[in-house]
Amino acid sequence: MNGTLLISAIRAGDTEGVENLLAADADPDVRDSRGTPALCLAIETYAAAIADLLVGHDADPGQCGPDGVPPLRKAVDSGSPALVEAVVRAWSRRGLYKAELPEARDLARHWHETGVEAELRRRTGARGPVARTRVLDDEFTAVDEFSLGGLTVRDGHGAILTALEERSGVRTSFEELFDRAFTRPDEDHAVWSSATILLAHRRDQKTWDAALALRDHPDPMHRLFGAEVLRLTHLFDDSDEDRFAGPAVELFLDWAGREQDAAVLATVLTGLGELCDPRGDAALLPHAAHPETAVRRAVANGLSGWTHGFSPAVREALLILMTDPDTDVRQFACHTVAVGKDRTPALADAMAALLDDAVRRVRVTAVYGLARHDDERCVEGARRLPPVPPGASYEDDLDEVWRYERRRDGR
């Protein structure tokens, strides 16, 4: 019975239902009425989160459906990096995946070099227009989804190729990864982000120098690629040495003062904020009223008051940013005040004003900040919150209210 329910939940895209059924010992390898295994069905319906759950419950990545196509090949054909990662992880759990990688890697390269639209036309023989839609492939990255002649494929094959090369022990050059990223020159696209993330994880001088060389390129997309690799190199370094932190501070301080492109500037300012250097505030403040939202978000998130109170200039900027028309800017500024050490009453009053914000997550951040600042207004603010929307990821912040109440009642 659970098997039938599991198939129905997969077809409906009901991730929570699948999770509950697997927890109740539903068979992760159950097949539907046509003989399609659950994992293949999740791939066919682009249900990456469900594929992850099935793999976590030891679904067999070697089971084919009636079409005879193995799950890994099916996932590569789908063009979804998230689905490929789930299937490769299933093979990895069994210690067998390396034997499967060369063919999958070659298939990903074929799709990437041929192009999704061209390969779709070859496979379907269709001549009509191709439908194209931007979709999220996982929580953080997007791809384009192409539909033609009854087939739907995503264009994440470049990212899949990058991941499979890395899994195979192939060290792809900076230049090739750069060229691959520029087939999808979009910082939110999986092909672009997979290249920058992989290069940043290398944390070697050669990669650093290659990214740094892009700083003065006339094309802002080249500068953006270099800035993202440099930023992530520090962000991903959890070692005690963190040898690129010092060079990154000096680099971004100089870069922030002369960058004219808003997207590149936002990345540079984000990097400065992540470095938590006291000199960063001086570089961030001139951009607090920038016309581009992405830049103001970087400023609101990057200003620092973790170890000391804010300077008067920073305090004034945050008070303005907490009234910004952009939701993220207001929330980021409020969070910066919340975690800071500055207890100026005007800052608490600005957070209290956000208890009536039109967006619930901004209100939650305001409640969190007031609780951290031992401000009684957090209790009423929490009580007046509207119902939790499905999939909200920020509700744990409300635990700060009962911590405040314990501190208050303890006194």
From TrEMBL:
Q: Which GO terms describe its molecular function?
A: ubiquitin-protein transferase activity
Q: Which GO terms describe its biological process?
A: protein K6-linked ubiquitination
Domain of life (superkingdom): Bacteria
Q: Which UniProt keywords apply?
A: ANK repeat, Repeat
Q: Where does the signal peptide begin and end?
A: none
Keyword Repeat carried by entry: yes
**InterPro entries per the UniProt record, alphabetical:** Ankyrin_rpt, Ankyrin_rpt-contain_sf, ARM-like, ARM-type_fold
Q: What is this protein called?
A: Ankyrin repeat domain-containing protein
Origin species: Streptomyces phyllanthi
